[in-house]
Amino acid sequence: MTTLRRANPQDAARLGALHVASWRETYAGLMPDAMLAKLSVEARSAMWARILADPPAAGNIAVYVAEDGGDIVGLGSCGWQRDRDLGDRGFDAEIGALYILRSHQRGGIGRALMREMARTLHSQGLRAVSLWVLRENVTARSFYERQGGEWIAEKEDRRGRFVLVEDGYGWRDLVHLADP
């Protein structure tokens, strides 16, 4: 049975491992192999350790994990909007990360994490949320659309000589996203 809970600093190493594993299985064929090969569990673990040591200082309100049998199989993080243009358009919150191992997708974990993050953001007085997703990630884009997300923007993410196009999705009313 999968359970959700708030992440804590002791989860950093397992979050780093999940983050890298999820990227490698999700983005294989969508991102350059060299980019995926350079991913470092240690670097991602250190990133999560910094975030979990002081979430508000990192711009986060909350980080959640989904566990199945004691293993972390998914994560979600949410916080205040970092994109000025989206903030100016009324999206005062963002979902910074939503990663679920492929073996645990399509079982309701993503929806449960989205709902929990929406509730948390709403409890902080925030009204609308956005996120960025790789345009070629059709599976994730379809998931966000099924959750009521609307396409709101696009941007290019330059990583060395590679250019990734990302689509922004938004929910103008966190209450609707938070409802089961």
What is the CA–CA distance across the termini? 19 Å
Strand order of the largest sheet: 1-2-3-4-5-7-6
Indicate the overall shape: globular
What's the gyration radius in Å? 15 Å
Write the H/E string, N to C: EHHHEEHEHEHEEH
- Total helical segments: 7
Summing up helix and strand content along with how strands pair, one would put the structural category as: alpha+beta
Overall average pLDDT: 92
What amount of the residues lies in strands?
25-35%
What is the helix fraction of residues, given as a range?
25-40%
Largest sheet: 7 strands, mixed
Indicate the low-confidence ranges by residue numbers.
Answer: none
In total, how many beta strands?
7
Report on this model:
With 180 residues, the protein is of the alpha+beta class. It is built from 7 helices and 7 strands; from the N terminus they run βαααββαβαβαββα. The protein is 38% helix and 32% strand. A 7-stranded mixed sheet has the order 1-2-3-4-5-7-6, sandwiched between helices.
What's the gist of this structure?
With 180 residues, this protein is an alpha+beta fold.
Write the layout of secondary structure elements.
Elements: E1 2-6, H1 12-27, H2 33-37, H3 41-53, E2 60-68, E3 71-80, H4 84-88, E4 93-100, H5 109-123, E5 129-134, H6 138-146, E6 150-159, E7 162-171, H7 174-178
Parallel strand pairs: 4-5
Antiparallel strand pairs: 1-2, 2-3, 3-4, 5-7, 6-7
Which properties best describe this structure?
7-stranded mixed beta sheet; 7 helices; alpha+beta; 180 residues; 7 strands; 38% helix; single chain
